[in-house]
Structures are given as structure tokens and as C-alpha cells.
Amino acid sequence: MPLNHERLTAIEGFLKSSYLEPARLPGTLVRVLHRGETVYSNVQGHADIASGRPLADDTIFRIYSMTKPITSIALMMLVEEGKLQLDDPVHRYIPSWKHLQVYEGGTLKTGWKTGAPARPMLVIDLLRHTAGLTYGFQLNGNVDAAYRQLGIGEIEKGDMTLERMIDLLADVPLEFSPGDWWNYSVATDVVGWLVQVIAGEPFEQFLERRIFRPLGMVDTGFHVREGQSHRLATCYQPNPKGGLDVQDQAETSSFLEAPNFISGGGGLVSTADDYLKFAEALRTGKPRLVGRKTLELMTANHLPGGKDLPQLSRSAFSEAAYEGVGFGLGFATTTGIHKTMVAGNNGDYFWGGAASTFFWVDPAEEMTVLFLTQLIPSSTWPVRRQLRTLVYSAVE
């Protein structure tokens, strides 16, 4: 169905009056593609407030967890090639994980009390965040605290590497037995390690060779490329008294240098043009990353019992709060649009990043939408749900 241009243009005024003028967001970039054509594009506000540098179409953003769908696709390419199966035990590829235990008590300092899991962790558990792993920022208990103390999953920790994280995790208990719960976690970083081990080449090189170069994603990588530093946006955080404070200044950002930790869970920077090339390749299958049936498998709800995220979540992560949303293999997916209380379609798939970035693909409407800004944390404002409402109000 066509989209009403007049209604789409209302997005600009809404974002300006609700977020830019009150200094809730530094700048916003919105693109709406319908049947492969850009039907709405708006960029406003600043890439850097202090200098007055405006946000632009080619601004480079920290996309954080919007890295996860790319990493998940990379692993599924190898699944399609028969190099692994989703029901393979993870310890087949990480032998030191063969005897992982489940937390029952204790701390990193005092020693752990543990028990055996009901079953081994499977590859599919990593993709759908049912592996028993966690993130230190969850603040749920002693296992999360151990992640913080060890620096597990912290992208900008200078001494952490992907291999070191894998080694550390062999000695930290799981939050729960694999398959029992959904818990947002470093699992996708582990997926990146599996890609590296199975493909026999560094993870970042695999992404460059198999995804970025074929799609023409020239500005996407684990750091800002040489000669492009002037295009990186500054990242902000809310000031408790109102307004914005700098969280990561563009000119001194760690993203200007190659990292020690290659994070498949949240390490990429990218641009609007680049990420839309990836999202549209998923929607259209051109160029082919994975086959249509593989993508259908990835965007189905894989949560045990067909449950929604709120029913199965052990995570403090805000995206898990919405009824009518399930999780597949690297993406969230809408399973009951009436439960979400936001317009859309069952079967759309999506994810966001810690700096409030967001994208979704709606196969039924042949539509792809991208929202980019730079504000941590992503749970500060309800802009993602509001943007969905505004976009779907334009569907005729």
C-alpha cells in the first residue's frame, strides 16, 4: 500500500518539538524505504552540539547492538554451508566450555556454589539469548557482578579481547540452565567467536569479505576508518537537571582506533546508507546474504513455548518489556500486534542499539525504517514506539 507523504512529513515537526528543542536528543536521522525507494528522509539537529556541527546524511554513528543482526547473519551463512548446526553443543567449538555450571550461590571473591545444567548450551541458545549468559549492566545478582569485575562484555575496556572473554566465561557460572529463560547477554559476542573459529579467519575479516564488501558498506567497521574521523557523531547522555552531557566526545572517542575487543554484540560503527543496504538485503534477498527460508527461520519466534519476551525474560533490558514481542535468531519479532498497543504487523523484525538507534523491517508492507541518533541509554525516551506510530499512520 502507498504511504501518505503529508503524514510522513509530520515526523520532522514531532521530533523537533518533542526531542530536539527540549534538548532531549542531539540530532535525529530518519529514513523510510517503501519497495526499495526512499519515501521519507529527514536529518536535523547536531552531530556535535558544542561546535555546532550539524548531523548529516553521511554522519557515522555508534550502532552498538544493531551489530547483533549482522553477526547473527554471519553465523547463519555458515549454517547454510553445512559447517555447523543450530542444535550443536557450543562446547564442540569451545572445548573449555564443556563443563559449564549453573549458579546456585557465592560470589567471584568467595567462590561459587554451582550445579550441572539440565542440558548443554546449544548454538541456537546463543542466537536467541537463552544460553544462561548475561551482561554486567543487568545488575541482577552476583553473576552480573562478576561480569563487571572481570570486564566481560565491556566494549571499550582497553585490555579485553574476544579470546580473553571466552576464556574468562569458562570459569563463571551460568545464570540459569540453557533454554530456561531469555536473558540479554554477551551471547552474540560468543557468536562472533564461533564465526572466527569455524570460518578459520578473524571475525572482522569474515564480515568485511562476506557482508560489508558485497553490500558496498564502505563506512561500517569496528572503528572509524582513516580519513573519516570528522564524520563521527559525539554521543550524549541525559543530564539529571535537564539537557545533555557528553558521554563520548567524537574527537577523542575510542572508536577512532582499532579495538582490542572485536565485539559482534555491539562494536560496529556505521552510517544510514550502509545499514539500510544491510536491512534491504534482508528484506529483498538482493544481494543474497542468506536464503529466504533461512531468514524466515531467523525471524520466527524461537522462545520456548512460543512465549513473549516479558513472559520468559530474566533481563532488565527495556526491549523485553513489551507484550506481543518474541525473539528469533538475532532479531526481535512481533508476534501479537494487538498486545504491543502500537500499530504495525505481525512478522516484522527489528532491533536497536544502546545509543537509541533503531531499525525495523516490515515484509507485509514492503517497508524498512531506520532511526539514528546518539543518546545513552536507549531506554531514556519512548521515541522508538512513537516513531512506529507516526510511520504507520502514513500507511494508506
Question: Would you write up a description of this structure?
Answer:
By secondary structure, the chain is an alpha+beta fold. Helices cover 30% and strands 17% of the residues. α2 runs parallel beside α6. The N and C termini lie close together (6 Å). The model has no long low-confidence stretch (mean pLDDT 96).
What labels describe this entry?
single chain, 396 residues, alpha+beta, Beta-lactamase, eight-stranded antiparallel beta sheet, two-stranded antiparallel sheet, 14 strands
Task: Please outline what is shown here.
Helix content is 30%, strand content 17%. It is α+β, with helices and mostly antiparallel strands. The longest helix is centred in the first third of the chain and has 16 residues.
> How helix-rich are the residues, as a percent range?
25-40%
- CATH arch. level architecture of the domain at 75-199: 3-Layer(aba) Sandwich
Output the CATH topology of the domain at 75-199: Beta-lactamase
What is the mean predicted local confidence, pLDDT?
96
> How many beta-strand runs?
14
Inertia-based shape = globular
Succession of helices and strands: HEEEEHEEHHHHHEEEHHHEEHEEEH
Question: With helices defined by DSSP (H or I, 4 residues minimum), what is the helix count?
Answer: 12
Q: State the low-pLDDT regions, or none.
A: none
Query: What portion of the residues fall into strands of 2 or more residues?
Result: 15-25%
CATH C-level label of the domain at 75-199 = Alpha Beta
Give me the CATH superfamily of the domain at 75-199: DD-peptidase/beta-lactamase superfamily
- Cross-sheet strand order for the largest sheet: 3-2-1-14-13-12-11-10
Structural class: alpha+beta
- Cα-based radius of gyration, to the nearest Å: 20 Å
Largest sheet, in brief, is: 8 strands, antiparallel
